[in-house]
Amino acid sequence: MKRGLRTLAGSLAPLIGLASGGWTQAPPPEGGEPERPFPRRAVNRGCIILRRMVQAERERAFIAREVTTLENGMTFEQWVKRDPRRGMRRESIRPPGELFVDNGRRAFWVSQRLKRYGERDSAAARMRQRATETLRRIGPGGDLRVEWKGQDVVAGRVADILSVRPPEGVPGPSRRFWVDRETGLRLRSEERAPDGRILSLSYYLSVDLSPVLRDEDFAAPEPPAGFQPVKERRQVFSTLEAASKAGYTPHQPGYIPAGFTLRAVEIFREGDRITQRWGNDITVVSLVEMKGPPRLPRGQGEPPSGFLPWPGGTRAYAFKSGERHFVVIGALADDELKRIADSVR
Amino acid sequence: MESIRDCKKIQSRLSEYVDGALSGDETWQARTHLATCAVCARVADDLAATARLLQTLPAPGPSERFEAKLAQRLADQALRPRPTFLARLADGWSRPRVRSATLTSGLALAALLPLTVVALRASRPQTAPAVLAETETMDQLWKEHATFASSEPLSDPSNVLLADLPAGRGGAGL
């Protein structure tokens, strides 16, 4: 009898552990523990929290002081002000002098470092359009893999930790979010390479959920005297339209990683440069096609070719095909970028 | 390391660079030099500041009797027989005062010509600052990519301010 009870207990123990582990498991250590499948219960909880986060991004007003650190150790600090009705404002603290304002219709930026200012399409409007599609992908039938990893405290607030990965077998970075349990706000986020390395990290030092926001915070900034305006590119949303405006059809890659869909096509200077961008809700891959070669600034000699490192784990691969010059840009592994590039030749 | 010859070459074109009158290749060469040469960068800044200052000066207009005087002169000219070019030249050079004045004014003109060119360029009517058309630098491509990437719903929106970070300053890639 005792042996039978022990056998029964031994059989049940894994099930009990599996059922309870998904609720209390601490986050795995930094730097590369391979991802394991989680119980369905934890997956569903993660989806619910993530959907709440996406909603809160559109509905909550706040002021926060945010720190961003890149893989190479560079650190930035900025004020973030957001009002669902009026827009978003980001103002750099360290290094100072950069300003970005998006009022939901147009976006404006001023760079004290470059002595330039510019205006472009609203990113907030684009995010709102994407949010509906993103919500559809977060759920039992969606293809994004969402897992609850545990809980933590950020800026003095309890947060749930989520892991969001592209679908099985799809290359590309993943993200972790620390979501405020009370409001659903994103308090911290990480971008991770497939091998687990942290490519970039952003978190709030402080957050004010009852902010006093003024209309002036989201008004278009006055161009500073002596600053040069930058002519921004025009954006269309299909290659057909781009071909019509530019007078030629941009080259299409034969391979784009699964899960990435065409987000935008941008035309610059009447077709001297056309950029196509694909996204999977987590990251973006860009293919730039130019009539002339790109330049490296600061006297670095010949126009670049091959792989180039950029901040935050983004890579670029520059190449020439026929008379055109191309650059593939994305936070993907080198072989993925090369595969995209080779499919364009 | 910048050579004196590079600096001389660049500085001789700085006026056109400030006016945006150089070709794409020349502009790129000037920019790359200015990014690493503090001396030439200072000269370029001073030129740009001078041009901006001259733009604020009012353009001189003609005197009140200018049109009347011009009409009278044209009328007088029409009544006199027109001498040949060589005859006019010989006549002018034969007079010592004319000879001396010609030499003096020629030297003065040579000295004033650069300033005149700058002043003439500066006096062009300008209604807005010159639009900076970005060349296809990798910095620009990175900026555009980072800006767009920050608008993905699950991306890091702080990247929109990082878009001004110069390319090529990153760590190891994936």
Question: Percent range for helical residues of chain A?
Answer: 10-25%
The overall strand count of chain A is 19
Low-confidence stretches of chain A: 5-36
The end-to-end distance of chain A, rounded to whole angstroms, is 73 Å
Structural class of chain A: alpha+beta
Summed up:
The complex is a heterodimer of chains A (345) and B (174). Chain A has 345 residues and is α+β, with helices and mostly antiparallel strands. Chain A contains 5 helices and 19 strands.
What does this entry look like structurally?
The complex is a heterodimer of chains A (345) and B (174). By secondary structure, chain A is an alpha+beta fold. Chain A has helices at residues 2-24, 40-59, 123-137, 239-246, 334-344, and strands at 62-70, 75-83, 87-94, 98-102, 106-111, 116-121, 145-154, 157-165, 174-180, 186-192, 198-208, 228-230, 234-236, 261-268, 273-279, 284-290, 306-309, 315-321, 324-330. The N and C termini of chain A lie far apart (73 Å). In chain A, 39% of the residues are buried. Helices cover 64% and strands 0% of the residues of chain B. Chain B has nine helices and no strands. In chain B, helix 3 crosses helix 4 and helix 4 (38-55) crosses helix 7 (96-122). The longest helix of chain B is centred in the middle third of the chain and has 27 residues, at 96-122. Chain B is elongated, with a radius of gyration of 27 Å. Residues 124-135 and 167-174 of chain B have low confidence and may be disordered. Classes of the chains: A alpha+beta (345), B mainly alpha (174). Chains A and B meet through strand 1, strand 2, strand 3, helix 3 and strand 11 of A and helix 3, helix 8 and helix 9 of B.
